[in-house]
Amino acid sequence: MKITILGSGGIGYPLAFCNCENCVKAREKKGKSIRKRASILINDELLIDLSPDVQSAMGMYDKDMGKVKYLLQTHIHIDHFDEGLLITRIPYMAPKRLEKLEIFAHPTCLKIMSDRISQYENADLITKEGQKKLNVHSNVIDQGQIIKFGNYKIEAIESKHDVIHGSLLYVITYENKNVFYATDTTELTKKALDELKEYKLDVVIMDHTFGDVDYSYSHLNEKLFIEQLNKMKKLGIIDDNTKIFGTHISHEGNRYHEFAEKRANKYGYHMAYDGLEMEI
Phi/psi class of residue 206: alpha, beta or left (left: φ > 0; alpha: ψ in -120 to 50)? Predict the structure, then answer.
């Protein structure tokens, strides 16, 4: 399995209009300290989150949006879903016919995605006619549900990040390798941990929105991130061989990349960065 980090930031890092010490330093350092909005690509064909930065990331890292066969959407927040990118699949914008895109999302999330598209175009993700116009096929998935497509098995894991609008975490299994993609998330629930106990995870890419601060809101900070790792270790879900990365990184408590990476290493994990590619 090949994993490419297309974006490792929260709503962006440095934050657009912010001149805090961390944002100023990130602009000076550039490189890995500049973070696009969070999304990942698996085997160049399975995209998790159609973020507003996906198009530019694909170009930067020599990827082809036209080769993406599957889209898993974690939730509907604007830093994770850009309806404008799906609209470009309409024939008059994309004259070369693309392979059908299979979309998977919580039913509430899918409905909101569809509504946002229909505000701009006579197309949607719910009706057969709307899906045909976009050349997509929509699939609903809910927490605890397992689906299979291609050579993948996907399990949707409970998330308390945005329950009202249907947020999900995902375990992706491919050729006996298991990846847990957990952004955005608060502390993992008992139900989520019970679901995860069925797996030995090879890779964990988990929310690290807030760093060394004493608040977390609907995300994790460094302290809570480490606590989730300890819970998973105690349950045998991860071990010392599991590759662990923090992602969805904000300027709040997370300094420039090299500093944040050195700090993370003390606790046995890494900080993701845009363009990171790994084979497992």
Answer: beta
CA separation for the pair 29, 231 (Å, rounded): 35
Q: Which residues of the chain have pLDDT under 70?
A: none
pLDDT in tens, 49-108: 999 999 999 999 999 999 999 999 999 999 999 999 999 999 888 777 788 999 999 999
Distance (Å, rounded) from C-alpha 112 to C-alpha 146?
22
Residue 104, number of CB atoms within 10 A of its CB: 24
User: Which pLDDT score, from 0 to 100, does residue 91 have?
Assistant: 87
Query: At what angle are helices 257-266 and 21-29 packed, to 10 degrees?
Result: 110
DSSP conformational letter for 188: P
Task: Please report the DSSP string for 26-68 in residue order.
Answer: HHHH-GGG-BPBPEEEETTTEEE---TTHHHHHHHTT--GGG-
